[in-house]
Specification:
Elements: E1 34-36, E2 45-50, H1 56-67, E3 73-79, E4 84-85, E5 98-99, E6 104-110, H2 131-150, H3 158-173
Antiparallel strand pairs: 1-2, 2-6, 3-6, 4-5
Length: 195
Amino acid sequence: MPAPKPSFLGPLRPNTFRPPRGQKKVYLPSFTLTLLRTPHSPPHFATFITPLSLNKLDLKDYLWHAYGLQALRIRSYVQQSKIMQDKPTAKMPRMHRWFRPRSKKRMTVELPPDQPFRFPEAPTDLSPWDKHRYEKMQRAKDDAQKEREEGPRIGPKEEERDKLRMQARELLEGKRVWKAGWMDYGGVRPEQARV
């Protein structure tokens, strides 16, 4: 005789369990969400970079309480960073000392079709955000990085070579008259000049 089935177990129905929404109270969040611009995604999908400790239910509760957005589905994946030689903040990077930067977690939220999210157009005038200053700092940083990678340089730099070449050409063509540097002080050597 077969054993009787317990009465509390009913027939299993797929996808009938829905976790309660809005049970976790978020007053002041201690995490940062970064909304990514994804032009290739449909308008009812939003992609975020989230902390590694944030799970799908936390994001769902946060979007519901903070913005009143209902999240139908959430997909998440952890994107591992590439391995680098030594830490990027090291003053003198060492060879064969491997370092993997912290991974990033991305979550894609599917919103209801009647609530599409369209990213605003990118601004064309970036002067309020000091774009020219940022580019200048970036160029200086890239130049310093290039000099560090090349190692110690013997001889003058390219800009200095060009200046010296122009001065030599002017002297040979007679456009400029050569005089010693100490002649600028009125014929008195700099060490003899009184200040």
